[in-house]
Amino acid sequence: MTAPRHALRVIKKSAHIALRRSPVLKVGAAVRNSVRAGVATGRDILVDSALMPAAHGSAARVRYAAVLDGHTLNLHAELPADTPVDTPARVVLTRGATELRAEARAHRDDAGRPCVSATLLLGDEISGLPLGTGRWTLALELDASPAAVRLRLLGDGAPGLSGPTRARAACPYTGQRHHLGLAISGRLRLTVAPAPSRAEVLRIERSFTGAGLLFAIHGPAAAGTRGSLPVVEMVEPRHRRVLRRTAEPLPGDDDAWRVTVPLAEMVDASSQVWKFRLPGQAGRGKPLDLGRRDHDLRAPRKVLTPAAFTVRAADGAFVQVRPQYTRRGALQLVCTPRTSVTP
């Protein structure tokens, strides 16, 4: 590497580190958090001081509502004070003329107030509610004589999450995304979005004689592989090198594939950083990066990045392979030639 190019790389890396540690970014994050907290407080004040009194007993106040694992909706709401707790209750989800119902449990909380709790499984692929994409309004239905009583659900009851876990928006089985929010009227609303295209790394396969990449394709991109074999592009951006290899199907899974990593062609006298992607359908569209699996850990790069390993390439040379993930979750392999297998 020439001296000017090396100097430019050092300057770029130093600037990147300085930007990440800049107090300006911390101030921006603090401002965003303050605005978010202010909006949540104002929303709660609006619901409790205006919308609930105006409901005149025809609404229930949501105290907790979240989809934490991508497909299970947990709901807890406070009922009007004169509601009997021995009444059968249901959660009703409405979109246009379509209504879906799920069982709920009426009870009294520790303070003696009538409440209702429910746990709803979302998605007919996992034996849950057959929710289509779109916006669904949530309400409660209580059995009464002569007709059932419908109560609106007001407020979002968003939990304050801290620690290593977070709410998971996408279902790990269907890929559909679920987001709870408020309508203009203050009613609790569930928005269901279709599964985005994604290519997830299942495992980095290694042996003494080579390496392979096992991955799965989900979403609309999976339909494009029906009846054909996907081509994986291996890109080295610094020298603008692109290698292409055809993946092989994994037995027992129509959406899972294996591609051989051609290590002998991916190294020279210095380290090379390679990214993996699927080209756009029919040569059009944005390429799809192969990346980490979606999970509920806030710091996947620090926790789940595979360890580096050394293998022997097809030409007999030893290569150290160090996997890493970018900030956006795309997989990179740093390939470095070695004179022996000794670290």
Q: How would you characterize the overall build of this protein?
A:
The protein is an alpha+beta fold. The chain has 4 helices and 20 strands. The protein has helices spanning about 5-20, 25-55, 220-225, 300-305, and strands at about 60-65, 70-80, 90-95, 100-110, 115-120, 135-140, 150-155, 175-180, 190-195, 200-205, 210-220, 230-235, 240-245, 250, 255-260, 270-280, 290, 310, 320-325, 330-340. The strands form 2 sheets. Strands 10, 11, 12, 13, 14, 15, 16, 17, 18, 19 and 20 form an 11-stranded mixed β-sheet that branches. It has a 7-stranded mixed β-barrel with strand order 1-2-5-4-3-6-7. A hairpin with a 5-residue loop joins strand 8 and strand 9 (about 190-195). The longest helix is centred in the first third of the chain and has 33 residues, at about 25-55. The chain is elongated. It starts with a helix and ends in a 5-residue tail after the last strand. The model is unreliable at about 295-305 (pLDDT under 50).
